[in-house]
Amino acid sequence: MVKNATSNNRGNVNALKLKFVLFMEERSKAKIIEEPIDDTGKSMDFIIEQRNAGNSKAVNVTSSNRIDAGINHGKSNDNNGEILKGKPSSMTVGEVAEQANESNNSASNFESEMEHALEVIFSFVPTLVLKSAILLNIPDIIASAGANASLSLDEIAAKLPTESPNLHHLSRILTYLSIKGIFVQTQTSNNPSDIRYGLTDFAKRFYVRKNNPVSLVPLLLMQAHPVLMAPWHHLHECVLQDCNAFEKAHGKDLWAYEKDDPAVNDVFNNSMSTLTVLAMGQILSCYDGFKEVKTLVDVGGGKGTALAHIVKAYPHIHGINFDLPHVVQTAPSIPGTSTLFLPYFPKTVDQIENVGGSMFDSIPIADAIFLKNVLIDWDEESCLQILGNCHKALPENGRLIVAENVTVESSRPNKSIEMVADLVMIALANGGKERNEQEWKRLLQMSGFSVIKMMGLPGLFSKMKIIEAIKV
Ligand SMILES: C[S@@+](CC[C@H](N)C(=O)[O-])C[C@H]1O[C@@H](n2cnc3c(N)ncnc32)[C@H](O)[C@@H]1O
Asked: Which residues line ligand 1 (CB under 6 A)?
């Protein structure tokens, strides 16, 4: 592959060439070809063609330690083909080494960039493979075998609701999710049937469902539900026209869809409950504004999860969980709320009344109103309507407590997860979006409220603020 060098620096040149060939071969999948780069072929020791996204670079080392380099743009070159060069230039051996280094760097950059590009393209795969494992109940199967249990493929398969599971498929799914840090594979011998699967701490915490108040499984089942994924296929249309992606996909908005599809209604409301369990812990540990409230309406309260936490912390409060009729119908019954969806919650909470209706029509009267993650779903006009009805339902100086994400104008999000909620609003909601402090204040002032407090939450919900306003 490497032709004879004829210079005095033959040893050095050969060493350089060998190094060059090796790293080009290894790192850049370089292809070494023997055809001369020019007609005579006299001045050439070797030619390396590096295919790089359709641009191949031919480097020609001469016997005088000078090198001819040609760039082949856009045309690939195979062993039988002709090398297509750009205008050749002469370089010293040092320059070749530098160029080789650059090639090496750019080749490894190319590889890592391509890996990243492919990961982005296939980023739906972990979500949906994890969903399949969850639907097969695998994290719970392993967890129920003991705190640090690990099970063989056969032991897992024996718990599946089928007589004839496909073990090849199962093992590939489990192997992939082990690479993703969800399962831990252990193997005591070379025999593949010795492989056992345990749960990582991370999976125990978030992907086991049973007796787990912080399980994120309901969120996964919601976001990866075909009905809730379909609107993402219409995101581009929301740029071309000012449209509602969910309506484009399903012909009606999410709330109307839920009314007609009880399964989606459940999946959505269960997912909201899970996130609310996590958020309420933080809200109640930082904010004590509920202590003087006697009657509290949670507008768009879903299954009443937030209210269940509030009245547990402040048992003197009479809570009204207000949401669309098909949503409150699925809320735990009174007395003994929360037993259905929050099994870990005490069964004594009985101060919650579930009331069905639309916040665009009217809102039950109370001395305070709680609105968590509701206004984010709506455009300005709808927010003003909802807030206008809140204003009507409250007495003079009545308190409105809003819990919403507040964006910070000066700091652009630097983690993609920080933008997810905002994009979910384009896909699923009715013109909804995250808002900054000024936008929230403006909306509230326009609706007859005076903001008296804006309080941030720590940790996971640090984007969320409690905005306390008084009816004026
Ligand atoms: C994003 S969820 C938030 C649920 C709850 N506040 C929480 O934080 O878990 C929005 C809620 O608004 C409710 N909603 C939508 N349209 C409504 C309407 N017209 N009247 C009352 N509630 C409505 C939905 O049913 C849903 O429960």
From this structure: 255, 272, 276, 300-302, 306, 323-324, 327, 358-360, 372-374, 377
Decide the pairing of beta strands 368-372 and 295-299.
parallel
Residue having the nearest C-alpha atom to atom 19 of ligand 1: 358
- Cα–ligand 1 centroid distance for 421 (angstroms): 15
Mean per-residue pLDDT, 421-444: 94
Cβ neighbors of 336 (< 8 A, separation 6 or more) are 347, 348, 349, 350
Q: Probe ligand 1: pick from 260, 323, 358, max atoms within 8 Å of CB?
A: 323
Ligand 1 atom closest to 272 (CA): 9
Q: Kindly report, residue by residue over 58-87, the tens digit of the pLDDT.
A: 333 333 333 333 333 333 333 333 333 334
Q: Where are the domains of the chain?
A: 10-117, 124-211, 236-471
Q: Do 48 and 77 contact (CB within 8 A), yes or no?
A: no
Q: How far is the CA of 327 from the centre of ligand 1 (A)?
A: 8
- Calculated CA dihedral for residues 372, 377, 381, 387, nearest 10 degrees: -10
The CATH label, of 1.10.10.10, 1.10.20.10, 3.40.50.300, 3.90.1150.10, for the domain at 124-211 is 1.10.10.10
Tokens, residue 364: 């039950």
Predicted confidence (pLDDT) at residue 50 exceeds the cutoff of 60? no
- Expressed in angstroms and rounded, the spacing between residue 446 Cα and the centre of ligand 1 is 22
Higher pLDDT, 367 or 34: 367
> Whose structure tokens read 């539900």?
225
Residue 364 Cα to ligand 1 middle (Å): 15
Cα torsion for 319, 324, 329, 334, to the nearest 10°? 10
Q: Where are the alpha helices (DSSP H) in 231-304?
A: 235-240, 245-250, 254-260, 262-286
Q: Which CATH class is domain 236-471?
A: alpha beta
Which residue minimizes the CA distance to atom 12 of ligand 1? Answer: 300
Do residues 406 and 464 make contact, with C-beta atoms less than 8 angstroms apart?
Answer: yes
- 243 vs 6, higher pLDDT: 243
Q: What is the pTM of this model?
A: 0.76
How far, in Å, from the CA of 301 to the mean position of ligand 1?
A: 6
Query: So what's the pLDDT on residue 93?
Result: 72
| Residue minimizing CA distance to atom 9 of ligand 1 | 272
Contacts of 98 (CB under 8 A, 6+ apart): none
Ligand 1 nearest-atom number relative to CA 279? 8
The alpha carbon of 155 is separated from its chain's Cα centroid by a whole number of angstroms, namely 32
Q: State the pLDDT confidence band at 44, using cuts at 50, 70 and 90.
A: very low
Asked whether the beta carbons of 359 and 383 are under 8 A apart, the reply is no
